[in-house]
Write a structure and sequence with these properties.
With 698 residues, this protein is an alpha+beta fold. The protein folds into 2 domains: 335 residues, Beta Barrel (Thrombin, subunit H); 267 residues, no CATH class. The protein is built from 28 helices and 20 strands. It binds aspartic acid (ASP).
Length: 698
């Protein structure tokens, strides 16, 4: 369907479907404009839709929602102050923590601009413009192109669109793919690279309940933090920011969650979903569990090493528990079985409509690919996992790859190694040193090798067999860590600039392993590209059938682009006979305080909370917004566009909503803005920040 037809049809479909916006759907700014304004008003939106987004100006309240290091955040002052989650800025807090100045434990408040702390690699992007480039991108692939060729030309086209877009100074652009290639959108954003930490609560508040409460309800976590974006050395003045709601929320209230949801997989076929379950989440749960144990065991009773691995441990634990939640939710909700039944209905419908015969063929092909990929899936998973595990291994492979890519013209390089990426790659390699504790890193590497050595005959990693296959893997690994210079920051940064020949001449054993691994990594990535090319050919055909069969708008999967979800504050029934209320208060936090981590509140909170009024301060609340990872830090706003909270999590029963939305349990968790105000006023005495957060006009 042409985009204009799609939009017309979309608007009609919306008018005809009054309950459409109950929760489900992560809508793009462009889609919101096509929705029936009366319907949105009925839901609770009090602003004209054009206040949310004006495509001509590339601005609106939605532009106050920023992407901050893969999380979401919102401007809350005219001087570039950004509110996001504590867990989103945890890396910056760690960057500035030492045993004698432990900001992780004690928190941090900048009482003046000069005290704010720079985040080395933190960047903020502010959306400016969305342009549909579907016709241009799809036209780039010649008819009859092989899948690998298709993937390459699409890639090249995207690069040239991005390069043209970034010729405007300060612009950061990307081409986002919707529905596997049904639509391509060029997104232009303003990038701000000077971002400084302004406020982080003590970890005992920002992460109250730790991994025990993560992904759970009832919840009492103060998952807030603040940063400030600077431009040309001065606080950035955004065109829009969210005023703070005066009245907070109550059950039944309309809210919107605005942010950058990362990745969902609802458009996959049931067989593809099963592949994800078996080889992505199941293996993740196993390997990440081993990595977590490796980090914990090797840093036990070592305060400084614990700080060093804190951010890694936190993010691994989050992903690990997420994987468990996905697996449990898939089984409990019978999501894959439901997808299968849905596909059968679509297939039966399409079978009598010749216009969709290609869609049916495409689906069969996608399924066949999913089963063929199983043959090397465990190896593929391990090769992919290199980017999340041992830093030494990751750095060694990146250094070798960078040197190889540098020999090519910029436009021919892999996207991650183009000139525009090199400064940030270098910064990350630099900053990673703060997270590198070699004994822990080595233990993670060992867990990876142990799994690689157990691979089946058809999917061996030859480099691992050659270097570690002699039966003395651990000894060899210890030798590697003792002799390599990759773990030394100054040496590593020098390697970063060296050619292949210079790197080879170093005879560094870890680099040697990376050189051996390089052709296997390349072959795996080429296979992946071929797969992407096939998906770009097949998925749109199948999705066309699915969407036409639905006869109503189907929001596409999350892809880290700006989305809005419309919702209401409400509780749910997690299981038979149990009802959860949608709000918690400081009283519940005090009740959970045992004095033992992760339920150990700082004395200042206990003191400030003594009054009866304080106990009533609202803390967390639930809504039925459609969110996922990446929505962390999303402004939760009321119908007037005023901030009432910040999204930070989902409930356990809803983790698998990445595969399918279930209105009975689809609940996101926000931290109430009234708790932040109480914290800043009564605990931190941070008058400067309280003054800066503007209450909404009455
Ligand atoms: N807590 C989540 C995250 O880590 C947010 C979510 O997935 O709902 O990204």
């Amino acid at each position: 369907m042409q985009l204009s037809n799609f939009i017309r049809w979309f608007a009609c479909a919306v008018l005809a479907t009054p309950t459409l916006f109950a929760g489900e759907g992560k809508w793009t700014p462009q889609q919101v404009l096509q929705l029936d304004p009366l319907m949105l008003r009925k839901q609770g939106l009090e602003l004209p839709v054009s206040r949310l987004w004006d495509p001509k100006r590339g601005s609106g309240l939605l532009a106050a929602t920023v992407n901050i290091g893969g999380c979401s955040g919102g401007f809350v002052s005219s001087a570039g102050l950004i509110l996001t989650n504590h867990h989103c800025l945890f890396g910056v807090v760690q960057e500035h923590s030492r045993p004698d100045r432990d900001l992780i434990t004690n928190g941090f408040v900048a009482r003046a601009l000069e005290e704010e702390l720079p985040g080395k690699t933190t960047r903020v992007t502010v959306p400016r413009k969305f342009t549909d480039v579907t016709a241009e991108v799809t036209a780039a692939a010649p008819a009859g192109a092989s899948d690998l060729e298709r993937s390459k030309v699409i890639d090249a086209k995207q690069k040239s669109l991005v390069a043209a877009c970034e010729s405007v100074a300060g612009s950061r652009c990307r081409v986002a793919v919707f529905d596997g290639g049904l639509q391509y959108v060029l997104i232009e954003s303003l990038e701000l690279s000077d971002v400084r930490l302004v406020y982080a609560p003590p970890r005992a508040i920002g992460e109250f309940g730790g991994e025990v409460d993560n992904w759970m309800w009832p919840r009492h976590t103060g998952d807030f933090a603040m940063a400030r974006a600077y431009k040309d050395g001065k606080p950035y003045a955004p065109e829009f920011y969210f005023p703070i709601a005066r009245n907070g929320v109550k059950p039944g209230d309309f809210v919107m969650v605005l942010g950058y949801p990362g990745r969902t997989v609802r458009s996959l076929t049931a067989s593809e979903m099963a592949y994800q379950r078996d080889f992505y989440y199941a293996l993740r749960e196993q390997l990440y569990g081993e990595w977590i144990r490796a980090l914990e065991d090797s840093t036990k009773d070592n305060a400084s090493a614990s700080i060093t691995v804190a951010a890694t441990l936190k993010s691994l634990s989050n992903v690990y528990k997420n994987a468990q939640g996905q697996l449990a939710g898939l089984a409990r909700g019978r999501i894959i079985e439901k997808q299968q039944a849905h596909e059968q209905a679509v297939s039966a419908w399409a079978a009598t409509r010749p216009a969709f015969s290609k869609g049916l063929e495409a689906k069969r092909d996608l399924d066949a690919r999913a089963s063929a990929r199983r043959e090397t899936a465990t190896r593929d998973f391990l090769l992919q996992a290199i980017s999340n595990g041992s830093l030494a291994l990751k750095h060694a492979t990146q250094i070798v790859r960078l040197a190889a890519e540098r020999e090519k013209a910029d436009a021919d390089r892999e996207t991650d190694y183009m000139e525009r990426e090199i400064p940030r790659l270098r910064l990350r390699m630099d900053r990673d040193q703060k997270s590198l504790f070699p004994p822990a890193d080595q233990a993670m590497f060992a867990a990876w090798i142990a799994r690689a050595l157990k691979l089946g005959a058809g999917e061996r990693i030859e480099a691992v067999d050659r270097v570690f296959g002699s039966g003395e893997a651990l000894k060899t690994l210890t030798y590697l860590y003792q002799s390599t210079k990759v773990t030394n920051l100054a040496e590593r940064l020098q390697m970063f600039d060296e050619s292949l020949a210079q790197l080879r001449a170093r005879k560094d054993p870890l680099l040697g392993f990376a050189f051996l691994l390089e052709p296997e990594l390349r072959a795996f990535q080429a296979a992946d590209k071929t797969h992407d090319g096939a998906v770009a050919r097949l998925r749109p055909e199948w999705r066309r059938a699915v969407i036409a069969h639905a006869g109503k708008p189907v929001a596409s999967d999350a892809n880290s682009t700006l989305r809005v979800s419309f919702a209401h504050v409400k509780g749910y029934m997690p299981r038979d006979g149990v009802t959860y209320l949608p709000q918690t208060t400081l009283a519940g936090m005090l009740e959970k305080h045992t004095g033992i981590e992760p339920f150990e509140l700082p004395r200042a909170i206990l003191e400030a909370a003594k009054s009866a009024d304080a106990a009533k301060v609202p803390l967390n609340f639930l809504a039925d917004a459609d969110t996922t990872g990446g929505n962390s830090g999303s402004p939760t706003v009321n119908g007037r566009g005023e901030m009432v909270g910040l999204n930070f999590d989902r409930v356990w029963e809803n983790v698998a909503n990445d595969f399918g939305y279930n209105p009975d349990v689809a609940r996101n968790i926000s931290v109430d803005i009234r708790f932040l105000l109480w914290l800043l006023k009564d605990v931190e005495k941070a008058d400067n920040l309280v003054r800066e957060l503007q209450p909404a006009a009455r």
